[in-house]
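anyone seen this seq b4? input:
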Amino acid sequence: MNGWIQAELEKPVVQPDEETTKLLDAALRRYCMAITASRQEAEDLAQETWLKAIGKIYGEGHANAEAYLLRIARTTWVDRVRRKARITRLEPDSHVADVRAEDDFVEIEAVLQVLQKHLSPLQLLVFVLREAMGYSIDAAASLLQTSTGAVKAALHRARRSVSAIRKELLNEGLPESKEEGMKLYIRSLAAAYQLNDVQTLISLVQHDASHAAIAVGVMQNKALQLQQARQEQAVLQLTGPGSVDSFSLMMAA
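predicted toks r here
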């Protein structure tokens, strides 16, 4: 028998206990909220994901149940968005959703600007990857080429800073940068986030706003992709209970 096949067959079957199930469910719901930006949509997506995954996880077992759940959730959501996009293109009032999507994009820019002000580059990246995009500690460490200990420490410090960030948002509202270079930089961060372009997001944060040429290049290369992303996001805002992004939900918690 092929050695790889033999190794796969000999892998231990991992069936999560009650405590692990709770942790898996929490991770799944956090991820669903991040990609749907809607409590109701996130709840529906989480339930559908469990229905699709439960046989594999509790029947056959899976070596990495969390990654398996998140992969199913993402695939399910992409299929749902594409289906809704096809329907929306046939509706005469779809321009209303475009306006909502534009408003949400501006809000993401503002929240990213506040986060960038209060957090170090590592803290910002870890916070966005873990809390907004649903990556595990191990996955974030791999993407950032650092240790899990460093990621945990950065996440802890970022979470402690969130209270100050919330107070600033409540007292001063969403900020708007007057410096053109910073505007372009923040807009690039928001574009990378909305497009789920993790590598670009990491590159931008690690190089910071002083590298304006990078931001310009990103915006030029991503312009068409962003337009498509906004159209897809517009579908979500029409079908969801409100136009609330995961960043806004975290800041309001």
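DSSP finds twelve helices and no strands in the chain. Residues 91-252 form one domain. kinda curious what u guys think
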